Amino acid sequence: MAILEAVGLTKRFGGLVANQDVTIKIEKGSITAVIGPNGAGKTTFFNMITGFYEPDEGEILLAGKSIKGLRPDQIATRGITRTFQNIRLFKQMTALENVMVGTHSRLSAGLLGILFNTKRIREEEEKARVEAYQLLEYVGIEHIANEAAGSLPYGLQRRLEIARALATNPQIILLDEPAAGMNPRETVEMTEFIRLLKKELDLTIILIEHDMKLVMGLSEYIHVLDYGRKIAEGTPEQIRNNPSVIEAYLGKSATEVS
Amino acid sequence: MANLVWKSFKGIPLYVTLIWIAVFSLLLHFLDKSVLSFLGILSSIVLLYFTNTSNKIKLAIGALVLIVIIPLVAGENRYYMEVASQVGIYVAMALGLNIVVGFAGLLDLGYVAFFAAGAYAYAIFSTSQANEFIAGNLFPLSGDWFWPFLIVGLIVAAIFGILLGLPVLRVKGDYLAIVTLGFGEIIRIVFNNLDKPINITNGPQGITPIPAPELFGIKMGTPFYFYFIVLFIIAFIVLANIRFEHSRLGRAWIAIREDELAAQSMGISLLNTKLAAFATGASFAGVVGVIFAAKQTFIDPTSFTLMESIGILVMVILGGSGSIPGVILGAAFVTLLQVQLLKEFSNFLHSLQQSGIINLPNQLDPSKFQRLVFGIMLIFVALYRPNGLIPAKRKTNDLGAIKSSPFSSGKLGILSKLSQSSSTKQS
């Protein structure tokens, strides 16, 4: 069953058509990759799914219900979360607090409750803190729980961002270039980790990635965008041999040569 | 190298702080008009902050200095108590603005409007002014009403905050600064002109005589009483600030300040969270406004100019945006500079002039250089301490306490799926 359906999404910025009539169905519990050359509209697609852009045309269905036109925070509370291409952490906060922010919409403390520091609020806070710590353990960075997020090395920031996304208790997680800037060993680790996320936490994973080894090894299904249009979809095997994909990546003469 | 020295610095030994407090309180007691010893005793609070001892002891000594020692040695002197309560009023306001600017990162240049709202709320209803537009000759109210009006001022300012926030918070950054500046000015001009067609604020003539607070028949019109009222309000605002800082809401504010996009994708509603910051900050200013009106016994729109807003913003930035001790220090420092240091220095030069030692043209009077001094101070802070005098610092969580928490026994949140899948595997 498709958990997420994007039907005929179109987004224009002035004269530029960033996404045109993109239809993508995501199966529950799958790992799906969205690939394409630079400027193909992958991140625009992510931004429409997560509510940062409203599509000009088309429909987005989460488990059959429309989420089009909702604000990003409303979509996040409905179970779609994301990481960003250029890591966006709350730099001044500690790693633990970053993850605690992710629990925001599941906590209930309001102005007065916080002011009077009621027992319920204290318990809720403690629980959020424990949960955040467990998530740091899960991604393997609990030793830096009290460090400021901005001071962490790059690889740890990536993990922290995933831990923070997991704290929103999502069904679907969108990873925008999770292995960008990583060395081959780190990339392998990240691949294993994403697989683990799917298996252990029952997550549906959608990722944008340029590292073809990662994409081909990890994803079960691939959608290819080029100039804002979807040009192909299929299993890694099918995509590898698809002439229009090769053309989009390598240019026209490449297909002629092969 | 300098950094190394700073890191190995464990804090001032406790006895140094205690001797400091003792010496300056004795000095202040015996030398009746010694400004220096008064400043000395106020700065003992800063010293105390850097003292190497537990927080409980610091709190106890701090309370002792503020509640017992200062009133005891300076209580007879109206002027000192006046200065101390004025410092307190600005500290309280700066702490309110700290929530908006420091935590939520919303640059608000019209903050004084909320202060005005609180002040006018009490001024209008505690004098015969309200008779102008409410029939029945019910007013003026007695000073007993001061206390409930602290709450009224809070609510009125919070409502102002939400009403202003709704349209204004759609813009961000520099635009927000300009729009709040405009709104602040609009409020002041409205108060200035609301004497016709219906006379609500009495326009530029201002409102007087605003009654002093009264409790069980005691009139609390002297700076001595205001000192304690302000102290009480500061205690409340500091407590609120501390609780907010490390709460769900405080984290959301800081998350928005750090990165709006990421905050939204964590499920934080931008508008609601920003409105909460605006309303909270405004409500503190409203309470302080009520005290201000009662203390001055007279208010008019000139007390609520743009310069006031900027002055409070300077306190927050100078002290350390988002840092509670920093903001308190910044506010105290700027206010003292404004009301005491420069004036004292002027007086000193005047006395030299009178005795014929120097010849000082009137234009060079130091008390006229207030803004110049502010400007120079800000430049130095921006260059050498860009995060303020006491930079904001996030609390480190006690990881041991987290591990030993009763909640740690099971996996929480999304990780609860982990134990389910492993238990099904075992069976």
TrEMBL record, chain A:
Keywords: ATP-binding, Nucleotide-binding, Transport. It holds the Pfam family BCA_ABC_TP_C. InterPro entries: AAA+_ATPase (IPR003593), ABC_AA/LPS_Transport (IPR051120), ABC_transporter-like_ATP-bd (IPR003439), BCA_ABC_TP_C (IPR032823), P-loop_NTPase (IPR027417). SMART domains: AAA (SM00382). GO terms for molecular function: ATP binding; ATP hydrolysis activity; L-isoleucine transmembrane transporter activity; L-phenylalanine transmembrane transporter activity; L-valine transmembrane transporter activity. Residues 4-252 form the ABC transporter domain. Gene3D superfamilies: P-loop containing nucleotide triphosphate hydrolases. GO terms for biological process: D-alanine transmembrane transport; L-alanine transport; L-isoleucine import across plasma membrane; L-valine import across plasma membrane. One of its GO terms (cellular component) is plasma membrane. It comes from the Bacteria. This is ABC transporter. It comes from Brevibacillus panacihumi W25. The lineage of its organism: Bacteria, Bacillati, Bacillota, Bacilli, Bacillales.
